[in-house]
Amino acid sequence: xxxxRVKNQHPCFAGEVTINxxxxxxxxxxxxxxQCRFCTRSITKTGRELQRPGLSAELLRPEQALVLVHRALxxxxxxxxxxxxxxxxxLATHHALETFDRIHQVYPExxxxxxxxxxxxxxxxxxLFRVGVRTLTVTVNGVEPGILEQxxxxxxxxxxxxxxxxxxxxxxxxxxxxxxxxxxxxxxVKINIVLIPQINGDHIAQIAxxxxxxxxxxxxxxxxIPQQEAGVFDIDHAPDCTELxxxxxxxxxxxxxxxxxxxxxxxxxxxxxxxxxxxxLYEYHAQEQTFSHG
Length: 294
Description:
The protein is α/β, with parallel strands linked by helices. The protein has ten helices and 13 strands. The strands form three sheets. The chain has an eight-stranded mixed beta sheet. A three-stranded antiparallel beta sheet has the order 2-8-9, with helices on one face. 46% of the residues are buried.
């Protein structure tokens, strides 16, 4: 699926369509297999005004997700994309694949989109394509182990915990292989980069050049959202406009840059930047929380 075609349908790949195209994010993925130092995942009914990845009002089972898609389309017929972006990593458990399998059988016309850290992307790329995924976002915050180890503190693969530079190197190589495999299948790959100027601010061009070589088609620079409650980073401010502009210019030498990111939650519903229908949807779906967060 080419970028030009996606631009007419996908609000997270082309900003000009965000005024009339919607998406639903389904929070079905409970666990993560890496630990980014800035990341705090949370399942909470309160604090809906907070807009950032990793947050969701609840976790869904795959069979429940299909019901929500049907209801979301009733509330917002402009929805063209079903995405899964957490709150954990989408490939760390089987839930995202099962969810897309169910939805693709009923709604083959909807774009299926997945966000992942890429650790297991190579392993599951064929299965993702089978269940209808044609657009994919991989978060790549560094392509040099010495830089990435400052951002990602550990990687868990096949039950083994890798820390520091070893874990960073493992993740980098897995991401390269996964992006290459997905692109070869015909999946359009977007790269998210969390901009932390003190760490990877001068590394953006190298990231962009590296992911382009693997087959990525577009880049999104996400300013760090400081979360001091995580107790890990000493960084207490987000990148300013000048730093963000510099990073985008560096990336744009190699790939188109998406400039309309809304820092969407893992349970976002509606047209980005215009409407948030998730309170209506989850009020309709009110139920006891039973999905283990692990």
